Amino acid sequence: MLNHTVHWIPFMEKHCKNNSELSDVVRRFGRELMEQDTLSPRQIKALNNIISCRTAIMGGHELACECCGTVEYSYNSCRDRHCPKCQAGKQQEWIEKLIEATLPVKHFHIIFTVPHELNRLYLWNPVLYCDTLFSAVKRTLHSFGYTHYGCETGAVAVLHTWGQNLWLHPHIHCLVPAAGYSLDGKWRRIGKEQKFLYPVFQLSQTFKDKFLKSLKLKLRKMDALEGFKGDIDQVWNKKWVVFSEASMADTERVVRYLGQYTHRIAISNRRILSMSKTHVTFIAKDYRDKAKPKPVSLTGLEFLKRFCQHVMPLGYVRIRRFGIYHHTTKRNLDLQFVDEKPDVDQLIQAVEKKKVSMSAHPGYATDAPVCRHCKKGRMLITKLLPRIRSPDGHLPSIFLKDLL
Predict the structure, then answer these.
(1) Distance CA 91, CA 82 (A)
(2) What are the residue boundaries of the structural domains of the chain, listed by start?
(3) What is the pLDDT of residues 225-242, one digit of tens each?
């Protein structure tokens, strides 16, 4: 990871003079996409939220400086999980909560990927595909925990569906603690003297077996197996590789590392370099060349087509917990992650530490902001601006009205 950062920062500072955002791309090429492709209602709603985010359409409030009287307007976010402007605050809040619920041990980073030959199946039924993927990952880690260490292990799993170039690439990031709960009711450290938690070859074979068998069973029940039998037979003969990273440092660093993956979307605004009348240029890491960031240029239509492939169905859960990190398992086994309850001073320090870390993020500022003009007064809310309600109508028609 450190090598990636070394290349990333100079490249960004030198080349990323970003004057375009994802919302600008949607406004410019959204109409062409609507005319040439069939989008689902969820995809249209996501695109509409992206162009409406932090505009007068979403409502907001009027602020005035208590000293110089300067008036400014602050507009609300759309809170759509596919919007690049709305994820930083959620990510910080999630990290702070998970730090409190994570075991103070080393963790292993394991990534489960599926060959691209099954992408056609994902496009046909994303929920079926992703549910099967989560289930296979869960059962694989559960079986390896008992067969290798004789204990119940756990994981925090995060689903991603994209690669750096926005191609469809469903995979799951897992953070697995180097600890488990044994059958005799005792905590046990696992993988203590090992570089990797489980043998990668065995892990890959088991994952492939569980995923494909479960997928075939579900498709057979839906009378849809014949349509995808050729794709499944093709990947049966391929070598699957599960990526496993060595154990990491302390718990807080581990959680903040995983936090990079939790509320990330297919592409952020800072990765978009430029936009012309026909093309969009963005940066993507080339993992075939030591993960160096390189510019990639796509037509605006192709860019939005790829982005829309990663819009998840409404309410689908992308972050899940397994084993000893799942609340049901913790309740059934009566697990306690600490031997003794902290005293009052420790509780007070923990609360103060959380307040400081939360307030350090701009999305969690508790005090009124200082006026940018006089640098003395505070900007106080003087009026609430209601959200502009669109007239009842067809969602695609409403969306097209805001496009170029």
Answers:
(1) 13
(2) 16-81+370-401, 101-266+311-337
(3) 999 999 999 999 999 989
